[in-house]
Structure formats: structure tokens, C-alpha cells
Amino acid sequence: MPKGTTKASAEHPFASIVVPAYNNRVGLQKVVQAMLELEYPGQYEVLVVNDGSTDGTREMLEREFGGMERVRLFHLPRLGVCRARNTGIRAAKGELVFNMDHDCIPARNWLARMVEGFTEGGPQVGVVTGYGGYGGTSTGFRKKLLDQVGGYDEEYFYYREDTDLAFKIMDLGYGFRQVDAP
């Protein structure tokens, strides 16, 4: 175990959840609230990246979640989901980074189950998904590997960007794990 790491922090590492959002004010409020109610014994943060929404998303986020210690808000012009995710990844403080789409409400144990995919799988696991395949809806990565491969390819505007990223990490020799984490 690395110096300064306790058993508890190794089992429950700091996690960052990146939620890119575009024009889903009502649904996003429910998603972020659900993120705040996750049952995870470790520390985590929620990074919401507003990708140029024009439906009042920015105002809702600032009103409902602005100033919360666990929630960090970012507001961008409309640049696409890959740039939004990369903004969150660059700002992430966690050892593990998880994606959650702006219209998906996870089960309360979602984060704990996703983290277990890494802790039980060992250091050779680089990608964990909780929702069939390499989908961006519920995928986690080791932050150091995201930094190493440069995050998402921003030439993708939307669709299959998550598969591309997972393959880049697996090309480095890291494995993939799927867990039951709805």
C-alpha cells in the first residue's frame, strides 16, 4: 500500500463524478440531487458541466447547487459532450473519475459498486462500466490514465466517444470490468 494510504482510503478512494448537461433543467436537478444522496463511505465530488444550455439550466444550477462544497459547476458555450466531459476531467480531484449522463438517475449504491469494480479488480483495471458495454452513461476510469491518453477525443461531437476512450486505455494494457451498478 502506498505510503500515507490507509486501508479505508484504498477501499474507498476519492471519486469524481462528471455530469455533462445540455438543456435538461428539470431532469438535471433530479440527477444532481440523486448524486448528493449516494451511499458511498468515501469522499466524492460532483462536477456538473453545462454545455451551453439555453433553457434555464445555468440559473437552476446556481440557485439549487451553487456554493455547495460537494458540487462544482462549470458553464461553457455549446462545445459538445466530449469537451464538456474533458472540462470536468481536467478539474477532477478524484483518483477515479465516473461519467453520468444528465438524464440518468443512479441507484443509491451506484458509486460504491462502481468503485468496487476498481478496488476488487486491482490496479490492472483501467475501465469499469455499470451499464452494458463501454457506454458513457455509467463508466469509470482511473484519472491518471485519462490524463495519460488526453481524455476524450474532442473531434467526436457525440456518440462512440466513450468506446474510443475505453479502447485507448485498454491499448495501454489495462483491463475492463463490468459491474452490476444500475
TrEMBL record:
One of its GO terms (molecular function) is transferase activity. Signal peptide: none annotated. This is Glycosyltransferase family 2 protein. The keyword Lipid metabolism does not apply. Residues 16-168 form the Glycosyltransferase 2-like domain. Coiled coil: none annotated. It comes from Candidatus Iainarchaeum sp. It comes from the Archaea. Pfam families: Glycos_transf_2 (PF00535). InterPro entries: Glyco_trans_2-like, Glycosyltransf_2, Nucleotide-diphossugar_trans. Keywords: Transferase.
